[in-house]
Structure formats: C-alpha cells, structure tokens
Write a structure and sequence with these properties.
15 helices, Aspartate Aminotransferase, domain 2, four-stranded antiparallel sheet, globular, 2 domains, Aspartate Aminotransferase, domain 1
C-alpha cells in the first residue's frame, strides 16, 4: 500500500549537505569537470534564447546529417528482435573480438588473435582502465599537449603528469627529442592520431621514431629489472583522414614495440556511432586478462545488441567502404569550407588532415577591445567575443591541457551543415573587422 509522499529536500539543510560533502576523498574534491561540457552548456543557453549560433564545440555528430551505417543499424535492431538483450561476456562477444582482429588484419596489416581484444562501452572505459592498470600513484605519465582527457585521467589516478608542449609547426605532435628527457622515468606514454583537438595526423616516419625509442628504452629496462614503459595508442579517428594523409599503426611500422602497446579504438567516430557505445582495447593477452577483469568489475561492457551489430559491420568490407566514402566526403566538404573561409579572412590555422577538427589561432585579437570594451588578454576573452559577437562557438586549447594564452582553438564540424558554416564565416568576417 502506497504511503504518503516524503519530500527529501526538506531533510537536506545546508549544514547537512555540507557535512555529507565532507565525506569526499581528496581525489574527488580535486577532480575538475569537463571544460568542454561547461562551454557546451553556455552555447545551448544562448541558442535557446534565440541567438544564431554555429556550434563548433562538440566532438559529436548530428545524426540527421550523419546517420550510422544502415548495416550497423539493421543488425543491431535484428539482435534486439532476437532477444539478445542479456549480459554479454565481460571481454565482449566472440564474434566481435574476431571481427576486430579481421578488420585490423585487412586494413592495418597487423595480425592478432581475438584474445587480444577487450570490448567495452566505448573507448573511455578502456582508456581509463589503462591508467588504472599501469599507473601507481606517483608514477610518471607522459603525454603530448594539446590532447584529450589525459589531465583528467592523470589526476584521477594520482599520476605525476609530464605534459610535452608541442608546436604548431610540428602539427602539434611530439618528436623523439621532446620525449627523450622524460623517457627513463615514464611509466605510461599516451598518443592520439588523428589528433583531437588539432585535426592533424602524425607522419609515419615520426611515429616509427617514437616506437624505436620506446623499444630501446624497454631493452635497457629489461636489463635492470625496471618496469617497462607502456604506450597507449589512441586511434579512434583512424578511418577519418583527408588530403593524402596516411594513418599507420606503430606495431605495423616497428613490430618490436608490440609487447608495450595498448591500442584504443571504437566505432564512435569511424561510423558516427557515438551513442551506441562500442569500443575496445587491443593488447597482449597477459595484459588483456587484467583489463577484462577490471571492465567486468565496473560493468562497463557494451550492450549486446550493439556488439552484434558492430561485428556484422566489421565483417562486411564492402559496407565499410561504401559508408566511409560518403562519410569522409561530407566531412571533407565542411573542413574545406572552414579552411577556405579562414584563409580568405587571413586567420592562421592548420590545414585539416584527419578527424573532424580544425585548429585555428586567433592571437591577432589579443589587445583588441572585447565584450566589455577592455583589451582582450586571454583565450577566454576571445572565446566569449567570438560567441557573442560572431555567433561562433569554439573550444580553447586549455581544454586540452595546453597551458597559457596561445590564441589556439578547436573547431569541430560534426554537428553543423555547410550552410551553417557559410553563415558563420560571414559573421566571423564582420566581427573580425
């Protein structure tokens, strides 16, 4: 029998709430929320007020403009209709693990067995699991900046963080020389290509150089009894390259690096399937067993129907090719519009070569009057100026752990139409004056 309604808010006084919050751990108190999500909330509020805004902040896709492959959708729905809605194995269904191995053999030239593959609900769980499995509190995490989420995950695991500040002339990728001073103390090195936020692709020869350096360092450590240096290789955007850029896997270039590489991947960006939450890690089986256990403990497995659908898609090279051709062409159209428009306006930027992003530098706005009439001196001043004067929403590189007021920002094209971009470039030209 239903009892009377209890309003819990009446029992949550300010003092009681503050006392409850004191239970938080030091790590939880120091944890930062996503700067990108904070900016997105501001953009949504502005758009809701009726303002015209071209939202170039989100690393996502408008599903109406970029629907998932029909083969993926149909196979997922069929699995639902067949009542495949129970728990999947914690490491992923066998069909999907086998399909990932086959896809990598066909497209990347690397041969693995399915027991190298650990499936999860997107790339994030296996990324975070990598930090948890291979970093003790105080261990050194080395990562290039700008890059996505390394700072957040490093803080959550209590790592000593060593960001390598890269340069625009190097397409914001690290060199062997930049890594060298830190390689002896590092326990985990992370790298993403095509790169979020810059939209650039690391040249294979530089990637091979980094791989050789890690092999040499681990050869030295094997003789001293030190723990090895592991490398998390995030290639979530690897299907999205443009302008002749070539994606390569480090183990295909330097096979000797294989024991030390944890590959992170997903269908989220390659197939515009961000909401279906299917990702995986590829790593040697002795390590995969530990990751499988961790993913199982936190219940971060991908939904079974989506796993069935993903396996069917990855086993269909013709479907992948058809989708990829159309998908990349639509993204390239948007990136080319931005590239041409910014060139016309005389704004420094990098020509996009991969992912869904373009890096743009608005340092020419420093010193000019901002929204309040005072000279703009920070990236945040510029971001707000562009949003409110031009209706163009962008993300500063501080959101990707690049400290300082560099004037660099990320533009993302997955959720905008060509028409919206053309209008935004006109408003931007007027605002820049």
């Amino acid at each position: 029998m239903r009892r009377g309604m209890t309003n819990l808010s009446q029992h949550l006084s300010a003092d009681a709430a503050a006392f409850g919050a004191s239970a938080l751990t030091t790590t939880a108190r120091e944890m930062q929320g996503s700067l990108i999500l904070g900016i997105a909330a501001e953009v949504r509020a502005l758009a809701a007020s009726g303002a015209q805004v071209c939202n170039l902040t989100v690393g996502d896709f408008d599903a109406k403009q970029f629907p998932v492959p029909i083969e993926l959708r149909d196979a997922t729905v069929a699995a639902m209709d067949a009542y495949q809605t129970n728990y999947p194995p914690s490491e992923g269904i066998p069909e999907l693990r086998k399909a990932v191995a086959g896809w990598y053999k066909r497209e990347l030239g690397i041969e693995i067995s399915p027991d190298w593959v650990v499936v999860a609900s997107g790339a994030r769980p296996v990324m975070y699991a990598t930090y948890r499995l291979f970093l003790e509190p105080g261990d050194t995490l080395v990562f290039a900046v700008p890059s996505w989420n390394n700072g957040y995950y490093g803080q959550l695991t209590g790592a000593k963080m060593v960001p390598l500040e890269t340069k625009a002339e190097d397409d914001f990728f690290p060199t062997v020389e930049l890594l060298a001073p830190h390689i002896r103390t590092a326990r985990l090195f992370t790298l993403n290509s095509p790169l979020n936020p810059t939209g650039t692709v690391i040249p294979p020869e530089r990637l091979a150089g980094l791989a050789h350096a890690i092999v040499a360092e681990n050869t030295r450590r094997a003789g001293t009894g030190e723990k090895p240096l592991l490398w998390m290789w995030d290639q979530v955007y690897w299907q999205l390259t443009f302008g002749g850029a070539v994606h390569a896997h480090p183990a295909a270039l330097v096979p000797e690096v294989t024991p030390y590489v944890i590959t992170v991947d997903a269908i989220s960006k390659a197939f515009a399937a961000t909401g279906l939450r299917v990702g995986w890690a590829v790593l040697p089986p002795v390590l995969a067993e530990r990751m499988k256990a961790l993913i199982g403990h936190i219940g971060a497995w991908a939904p079974k129907p989506e796993q069935v659908g993903t396996a069917a898609l990855l086993d269909d090279p013709a479907a992948i090719a058809r989708f990829g051709e159309t998908f990349r062409a639509a993204l390239a159209e948007r990136l080319d519009l931005l590239d041409a428009g910014l060139t016309r306006l005389g704004v420094q930027h990098l020509v996009p070569r991969g992912a869904i992003y373009l890096s743009v530098c608005f340092d020419g706005l420093f010193g000019r009057p901002g929204l309040d009439g005072a000279p703009m001196t920070t990236n945040e001043d510029i971001r707000r100026f562009l949003l409110h004067r031009a209706g163009v929403a962008v993300v500063p590189f501080q959101a990707f752990d690049l400290a300082g007021e560099s004037g660099w920002f990320r533009m993302s094209v997955g959720a905008v139409s060509p028409a919206q971009l053309k209008d935004a470039l006109e408003r931007l030209g007027t605002a820049l004056g």
